[in-house]
Amino acid sequence: MTYPVLITDVVTKYDVRINDEDVFTIDSEIGTKVSSTAATHNLPVQTGIEIVSLIRQQQTVLPEDDGARRVNRLITRNIHRVLQTT
After folding, report:
1. DSSP per-residue letters across 41-53
2. Which of 71, 74, 77, 61 is nearest to 16 (CA)?
3. Beta partners for 13?
4. What is the pTM for the complete model shown?
5. What is the SS3 assignment for 33?
6. DSSP summary character for residue 16
7. pLDDT tens digits for 56-83?
């Protein structure tokens, strides 16, 4: 059994002020694409392995403001539980 990791990095840029909700909305859409429910994933079938589960964890928010540009990043770590079948 192995535990590969899928990392998503959502970056939003603003001219005036950061909207904190945008990165979480986008990340939620990504989460729905890879895992519709806790027990079901939406990843394609792979030859020789079975994806048992996908767990979304460890979200980190990194706001940046250099005075001219405002950037908000959300990095999410997704763990897959994978069994080798062949």
Report:
1. --PPP-TTEEEEE
2. 71
3. 71
4. 0.72
5. helix
6. S
7. 888 999 998 888 889 999 999 988 777 7
How far apart (Å, rounded) are the C-alpha atoms in residues 13 and 63? 10
For the beta carbon of residue 41, count every other beta carbon within 10 angstroms: 19
The helix, strand and coil proportions of the chain, stated in percent and rounded to the nearest 5, come to 15, 50, 30
* pLDDT at position 11: 94
Shortest CA distance to 81 belongs to which of 37, 41, 27, 26? Answer: 41
pLDDT digits (tens, 9 = 90+) for 7-62: 999 999 998 888 889 999 999 888 887 765 555 667 777 788 777 777 888 899 99
Tokens 């792979």 sit on residue: 46
